[in-house]
Design goal:
Blueprint lengths: L2 H23 L2 H5 L8 H19 L5 H24 L9 H21 L2
């Protein structure tokens, strides 16, 4: 593994751990973006936060890197409907500009691409 890839892997893992911790420390903004058609928004936020912490931590170790990368890919795909919902309903998220809401959509694919690259 190259030095650059190791840095990306550790940074990516730390990022997901930090965001996952925020799901528990400050769940309200995350609960607010759960689409209304999904049940139990608080539980979904806590489960997704736990998954981010677990897969982020697993990404820090070479032996579990592939499992972590695939787990993050699945997680990012699973939460994508929330990003679509936000972009299509900007009036529900007045604290974020519509441009930011739409920019989140391709950003999700960048994150998936990074996780896919790290899986090897």
């Amino acid at each position: 593994m190259t030095h650059f890839k190791r840095i990306v892997r550790i940074t990516f893992g730390a990022l997901f751990i930090a965001i996952g911790v925020l799901h528990f420390v400050r769940p309200t903004p995350f609960v607010a973006i759960v689409p209304p058609y999904l049940p139990w928004p608080t539980a979904l936020v806590l489960v997704s936060g736990a998954a981010e912490i677990i897969f982020g931590a697993l990404l820090l170790f070479r032996g579990t890197m592939m499992l972590a990368a695939w787990g993050l890919i699945l997680l990012l795909v699973a939460v994508y409907p929330a990003n679509i919902h936000m972009a299509l309903n900007p009036d529900l998220y007045p604290s974020m500009s519509p441009a930011v809401l739409w920019a989140r959509l391709p950003l999700q694919f960048v994150l998936i691409g990074i996780a896919f690259w790290l899986r090897r």
